[in-house]
Amino acid sequence: MKIGLIAEKTGVSRDTIRLYEKMGLLTGVTRPHKYNNYKEYAESNVDRVKMIITLKRLGLSLKECKKVFDAIIDKGYNDEFKNTFLACKLKEIDSKIDELKQLKNILKQYMNSGCDNEGIIDKIKGPE
Asked: Distance between the two ends of the chain, CA-based, in angstroms?
């Protein structure tokens, strides 16, 4: 499958696919013809790109996506991955949830306070 078809099926640009390939996120990339520079991509890369899109939407960086692929998909799940990467991500998620809850409460207070917005900026900024 050529790069244009993967781009079409996944909705990402060719440059993005090239970046994913360069980072080692895609597999089964070959150059079957010696007379041109066209690459062939395995069909499985469509699902990999869609998974990357989902993981990014959920807040993972591309480097973190690579860790997930390496540990879970390509090399099998292991305790080191579980105890380091996943534990760290869970802490980050819990922290983000707490921050979003605080913001939600501040915004609710502002909505219920009418025109009185005194102190709202200080609450959003947090402690110095």
From this structure: 54
Query: What pLDDT digit, counting tens, does each position of 24-74 carry?
Result: 999 988 888 888 888 999 999 999 999 999 999 988 999 999 988 888 776
* H/E segment holding residue 8: helix 3-10
CATH of the domain spanning 3-60, picked from 3.10.20.600, 1.10.1660.10, 3.30.565.10, 1.10.510.10:
1.10.1660.10
Please report which residue ranges of 23-119 form alpha helices under DSSP H: 44-57, 62-68, 79-81, 87-112
Residue length of the chain: 128
User: What does the domain layout of the chain look like in residue ranges?
Assistant: 3-60, 89-125
For tokens 């090239």, what's the residue? Answer: 18
pTM of the model: 0.71
For 48, counting Cβ atoms within 10 Å of its Cβ (0-12 exposed, 13-18 middle, 19+ buried), the class is: buried
